[in-house]
Structure formats: structure tokens, C-alpha cells
């Protein structure tokens, strides 16, 4: 079982050389819009709601912006474990600004209705340009452990 | 009104002189005494308790009452203390005079960490914790966590901090707002080089921000989170080039 780990560390370089190659049965296109309705997201904090396994991945059901596209710093509504929960986008696969980080997964942090984060720690790196965006992000930055 | 101020400040002055070691704080006095007269409106709502403990309290009083020299000479004659105390008074009043004349310049004091901590102490904040964030973490320089007695107390502290900041800021500095205003147990203010978090003690126990920011990677909650591994059938996406 070392091969998946190996391919993880040599990102994109030697993936083809591993013997266990999983072929998709469907085609993928590059990311067109960042986060919109029905995107599957990855919850990155240590809340119990985000980490307990469920047979369906958490999906976005509403994006709280003028257009339905969510970028870093936008609030969204998720459907997790059969319940609705608000969340904050902290990274997406779509390329954004030139010198801003792009993530390999659409990361999201669960928050309450009053803005307090549901979890208490975030292991995944958080972009620092979140500080300059207008909104209440100091709490999420306070529980983050690494910054990008 | 004048007599009222006189009696109040007399009480404060006498208590101030009872506390030893005040004379070496003349350096601090000099820097604070440049507060112009327009600070009066700020000092007015503050409580004038006769049990004076911290120096900043005295600063507010001095800013308020040091307007007239005549007023001060009355106090000097009434206090039956040693010559050194009157010397202190004259020095302070002299400073006020030459600084109040140049009212066009704002207070030369910037909103530093010391100002913030002193105003938090004045507001009876519970458990002030100031953490100096190392240079590698490019978030901020100082991280401050403060507890309060009740949600109303937290809100009052936050609003007062904003008030003082607005008064002391220069024209180029950005405006600062309170984040998390509708959450009654946790409010934050981000002043560029400092971040302050006002929390209730229960909330503080849940999040343990001091532990996270002092032991950066060795924090208990972080270590107890299970390490994430990619699932075995993970496939990377088409590489996006732009």
C-alpha cells in the first residue's frame, strides 16, 4: 500500500509510473466556477459534524453572494448529515488572483449562525488574504494552525 | 462644577501621593500629558473612583483637570506634602501648558500595545493574555485574549477600545470595526499589528486560543485530530495551467 502514498508525495510528476493506476470511467473538465450549488466540499475543521462519516459527502445548497459563485471568504449553506449548516469557504480549486494560493480541494469551515466557528482547530493551511476581505474572519484565522 | 472637580481630584491626588514610586513615572507622565483638551469628552463617561490603583486612571484625570494653571496652584497649596510633590505638579502643569498651546497637532501617542493593555486594565478586564507572535507567522505581531464578566461587559470593552483607537489614529491608518458583533460571547477587533479577542470565560475554555498560539504545532487539540490521509482511490484532476 505504499504506492498511493508515494503518488501523493510526488504530486503530478510520477503518478503515471505507479502500477496501481485508477482509470476514471467518466471525463473531467477543469474547474469553471469556484463553488456553487451542488458542489461537494471538504470540511477542514475538527467539528464532529464535519468529521463523522456519512454515506453522502457534504454539498453546497446555497451560496450567499449576488451571483451564485462562491470564492474564498464567502458564506455558503451546506447539507451535512441530513441537516443544514452554514459554512465559510477557505480555499477552492479554481485559480484566483495571480499570487494567491490555489488548493487541491474545495475547503470549507463550518460556522454557526452568529459567526462562531463550530470546530476549534483547523489543520489545513488557510490563506492570509482572508484578512483583507471585508467580513468577520478573525475568528477563523484565530483557530487556524498554519497559514499560506 | 469647578468645585466638584476640585473635590474629586483632591481625593485622587491624595491617594496618588500615598502610593510610593510615583516619581519615577514622570517619564510616562510627560508622554501622556500631551493629550489635548478635546480628550475631555472622552474622559467624561469614565468612572472616577477614589480607589486609584493604576496609572492610566490618573492620566485621564490629569488630562481633564490640568487645563487651568490657577486651579492647579490651589491644589498645590492645599496638599501638605513634600516639595518633591509640588515639583511634580509644576512639571506636569508646565507640560500641559506648552502642549495645549499647540492644539493643532494631534496627540503624539499612537495606539500601541501599552495603550490597549492599559485601557483593558482600566475596564476591569479579566485575564488579559498578550502573546507575541513570532515573525514566521505572517498574521499579526501581538495576539491578545481578554475575558469579561458578561456579554455587556465585552461589548463595552470593545466599543471603548474602538473609541480610543479612533481618537488616537493618524489619517493614514485604516478604520477598524468590531467583528462578531452579533455573537454575544466572542468579539474580535483586528488592529493591523494587533488582534484582540473578547470572550466569555466559558468560550475561552472551549477554544483555548492561548494554548494554540503559544504552542503552535504542539497544541493538544491539534495533535488529537486524526491525521488525514488521501483515500486509496484518489485521482488527481486535470492540471490547470494559466
TrEMBL record, chain A:
<protein>
    <recommendedName>
        <fullName>Large ribosomal subunit protein uL14m</fullName>
    </recommendedName>
</protein>
<keyword id="KW-0689">Ribosomal protein</keyword>
<dbReference type="InterPro" id="IPR000218">
    <property type="entry name" value="Ribosomal_uL14"/>
</dbReference>
<dbReference type="Pfam" id="PF00238">
    <property type="entry name" value="Ribosomal_L14"/>
</dbReference>
<comment type="similarity">
    <text>Belongs to the universal ribosomal protein uL14 family.</text>
</comment>
<keyword id="KW-0687">Ribonucleoprotein</keyword>
<dbReference type="GO" id="GO:1990904">
    <property type="term" value="C:ribonucleoprotein complex"/>
</dbReference>
<dbReference type="GO" id="GO:0003735">
    <property type="term" value="F:structural constituent of ribosome"/>
</dbReference>
<keyword id="KW-0496">Mitochondrion</keyword>
<dbReference type="GO" id="GO:0006412">
    <property type="term" value="P:translation"/>
</dbReference>
<dbReference type="InterPro" id="IPR036853">
    <property type="entry name" value="Ribosomal_uL14_sf"/>
</dbReference>
<keyword id="KW-0809">Transit peptide</keyword>
<dbReference type="GO" id="GO:0005840">
    <property type="term" value="C:ribosome"/>
</dbReference>
<dbReference type="GO" id="GO:0005743">
    <property type="term" value="C:mitochondrial inner membrane"/>
</dbReference>
TrEMBL record, chain B:
<dbReference type="InterPro" id="IPR043519">
    <property type="entry name" value="NT_sf"/>
</dbReference>
<dbReference type="GO" id="GO:0043023">
    <property type="term" value="F:ribosomal large subunit binding"/>
</dbReference>
<dbReference type="GO" id="GO:0090071">
    <property type="term" value="P:negative regulation of ribosome biogenesis"/>
</dbReference>
<comment type="similarity">
    <text>Belongs to the Iojap/RsfS family.</text>
</comment>
<dbReference type="GO" id="GO:0005739">
    <property type="term" value="C:mitochondrion"/>
</dbReference>
<dbReference type="Pfam" id="PF02410">
    <property type="entry name" value="RsfS"/>
</dbReference>
<keyword id="KW-0496">Mitochondrion</keyword>
<dbReference type="GO" id="GO:0017148">
    <property type="term" value="P:negative regulation of translation"/>
</dbReference>
<protein>
    <recommendedName>
        <fullName>Mitochondrial assembly of ribosomal large subunit protein 1</fullName>
    </recommendedName>
</protein>
<comment type="function">
    <text>Required for normal mitochondrial ribosome function and mitochondrial translation. May play a role in ribosome biogenesis by preventing premature association of the 28S and 39S ribosomal subunits. Interacts with mitochondrial ribosomal protein uL14m (MRPL14), probably blocking formation of intersubunit bridge B8, preventing association of the 28S and 39S ribosomal subunits. Addition to isolated mitochondrial ribosomal subunits partially inhibits translation, probably by interfering with the association of the 28S and 39S ribosomal subunits and the formation of functional ribosomes.</text>
</comment>
<dbReference type="InterPro" id="IPR004394">
    <property type="entry name" value="Iojap/RsfS/C7orf30"/>
</dbReference>
Amino acid at each position: 500500500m505504499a504506492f498511493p502514498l508515494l503518488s501523493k508525495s510526488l504530486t503530478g510528476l510520477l503518478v503515471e509510473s505507479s502500477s496501481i493506476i485508477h482509470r476514471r470511467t467518466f471525463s473531467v473538465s477543469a474547474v469553471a466556477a469556484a463553488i456553487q450549488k451542488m458542489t461537494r466540499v471538504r470540511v477542514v475543521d475538527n467539528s464532529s459534524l464535519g468529521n463523522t462519516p456519512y454515506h453522502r459527502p457534504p454539498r453546497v445548497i446555497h451560496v450567499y453572494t449576488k451571483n451564485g459563485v462562491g470564492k474564498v471568504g464567502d458564506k455558503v449553506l451546506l447539507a451535512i448529515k441530513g441537516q443544514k449548516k452554514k459554512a465559510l469557504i477557505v480555499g477552492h480549486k479554481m485559480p484566483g488572483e495571480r499570487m494567491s494560493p490555489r488548493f487541491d480541494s474545495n475547503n470549507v469551515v463550518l460556522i454557526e449562525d452568529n459567526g462562531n466557528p463550530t470546530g476549534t482547530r483547523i489543520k489545513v493551511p488557510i490563506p492570509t488574504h482572508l484578512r483583507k476581505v471585508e467580513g468577520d474572519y478573525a475568528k477563523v484565522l484565530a483557530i487556524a494552525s498554519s497559514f499560506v | 462644577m469647578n468645585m466638584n472637580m476640585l473635590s474629586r481630584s483632591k481625593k485622587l491626588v491624595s491617594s496618588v501621593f500615598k502610593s510610593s514610586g510615583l516619581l519615577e513615572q514622570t517619564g510616562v507622565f510627560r508622554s501622556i500629558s500631551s493629550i489635548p483638551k478635546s480628550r475631555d469628552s472622552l474622559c467624561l463617561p469614565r468612572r472616577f473612583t477614589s480607589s486609584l490603583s493604576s496609572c492610566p486612571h490618573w492620566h485621564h484625570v490629569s488630562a481633564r483637570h490640568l487645563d487651568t494653571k490657577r486651579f492647579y496652584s490651589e491644589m498645590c497649596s492645599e496638599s501638605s506634602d513634600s516639595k518633591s510633590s509640588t515639583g511634580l505638579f509644576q512639571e506636569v502643569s508646565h507640560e500641559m501648558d506648552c502642549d495645549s498651546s499647540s492644539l493643532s497637532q494631534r496627540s503624539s501617542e499612537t495606539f500601541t500595545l501599552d495603550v490597549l493593555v492599559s485601557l483593558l486594565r482600566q475596564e476591569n478586564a479579566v485575564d488579559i493574555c498578550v502573546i507575541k507572535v513570532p515573525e514566521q507567522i505572517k498574521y499579526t505581531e501581538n495576539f491578545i485574549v481578554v475575558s469579561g464578566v458578561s456579554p455587556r461587559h465585552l461589548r463595552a470593552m470593545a466599543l471603548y477600545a474602538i473609541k480610543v483607537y479612533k481618537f488616537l489614529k493618524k489619517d493614514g491608518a485604516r478604520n477598524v470595526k468590531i467583528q462578531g458583533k452579533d455573537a454575544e460571547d466572542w468579539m474580535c477587533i483586528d488592529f493591523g499589528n494587533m488582534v484582540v479577542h473578547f470572550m466569555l470565560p466559558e468560550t475561552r475554555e472551549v477554544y483555548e486560543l492561548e494554548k494554540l498560539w503559544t504552542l503552535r504545532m504542539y497544541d493538544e487539540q491539534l495533535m488529537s485530530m486524526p491525521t488525514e490521509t488521501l483515500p486509496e482511490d484518489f485521482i488527481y484532476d486535470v492540471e490547470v495551467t494559466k
